[in-house]
Amino acid sequence: xxxxxxxxxxxxxxxxxxxxxxxxxxxxxxxxxxxxxxxxxxxxxxxxxxxxxxxxxxxxxxxxxxxxxxxxxxxxxxxxxxxxxxxxxxxxxxxxxxxxxxxxxxxxxxxxxxxxxxxxxxxxxxxxxxxxxxxxxxxxxxxxxxxxxxxxxxxxxxxxxxxxxxxxxxxxxxxxxxxxxxxxxxxxxxxxxxxxxxxxxxxxxxxxxxxxxxxxxxxxxxxxxxxxxxxxxxxxxxxxxxxxxxxxxxxxxxxxxxxxxxxxxxxxxxxxxxxxxxxxxxxxxxxxxxxxxxxxxxxxxxxxxxxxxxxxxxxxxxxxxxxxxxxxxxxxxxxxxxxxxxxxxxxxxxxxxxxxxxxxxxxxxxxxxxxxxxxxxxxxxxxxxxxxxxxxxxxxxxxxxxxxxxxxxxxxxxxxxxxxxxxxxxxxxxxxxxxxxxxxxxxxxxxxxxxxxxxxxxxxxxxxxxxxxxxxxxxxxxxxxxxxxxxxxxxxxxxxxxxxxxxxxxxxxx
Length: 510
Prior knowledge:
This protein is an alpha/beta fold.
């Protein structure tokens, strides 16, 4: 049965709602649960997942909407949900001061940066308030109009302030990770990225091999569009060029618009420090003194380390032990097993895997592909060689992002395991601030079930996993990798390494 509830004037931020939805659903043994503030966009999302009721029609953005599907009748479910939700808030409030407005926080703490995570229709207004209070802005919220983004960034430029976002998920400012970020050592490498997991991947690689981060600035995925014009990418390059703590700059992005690419190249001609540039799937034939162009996130981290005098081992080549393991995996396959299925939580990691795999895998498609020929017809359905970004909006409507709650991926793993063409399932796991407390742990049982499903059909599925994290992340890099190895998963050194392993297994199956 389904039931619905409107809690008037009960505001909760979207991150809190997303992060606790699955936990409450499990705790109360509910078949499904959605919790959203009553914006028009959220109402549409609740309708799209079949949990909408006419009582929501007159709800305002300050009202909490609850929709539930239960196996058995429970008249107290709404009170139980609210109790769990409030318990989480009480725990947070017991250890952190709470301010009702940006102005209050500014007055109390003399803060110089505001992280904004409210519904998109309010986000721009709050960002304006922060800028007027002379605060840098990290705009985690999405669904902010392009017009507002341009206006906010123009105001930021006028006031010499950063506007990171909208839809900016990762930054490290003066050693402090913001939103989704890994715990990394401080150092002298500064990064600017229009990509959240891309920024995480490069900072993790730098940390693992003795390097450190001065600043890691996210600018939002739309910054390098023609409309926005790279306003914050260009400003951030200038900021790092002037920063005494930064000796080397790394730029990371998916393909920018050509007009913005030209602006970036012009800017790089003015930079006095070495710069490593990784613009995935972008052809770059320019030659600029002290600028090094690389094609993968792994190469970006490796080159940055090299330029600051740190040696790294090969991060993509297959050693003899791994080659022997791959050969053994190939020998266990049925003739029908010729396809790789990449199920990613990180969008940029999916894009990097696509870039690497396309050279060795035929008929590869993905929902992150820019080339129309590589675009998946229906990301909900598996067919052929696929790389799927499960953080795409079509998967997260009414549900938390898989980095917050990786359970969203579990049903898809089992679906791929039942497919007789599946040879390799390629998975990423993100550790760090903001991410799930144990992304590997919640996936292990499903990997076991998938292996058993295949074995009953006389098939063997190769699992290849990569954990994006450091030994300082609270989830534990070593323990996370051990959980995977103990279950027979091939654990890669980097995301690019994982793609190379998957390609090698498939290549042998052709």
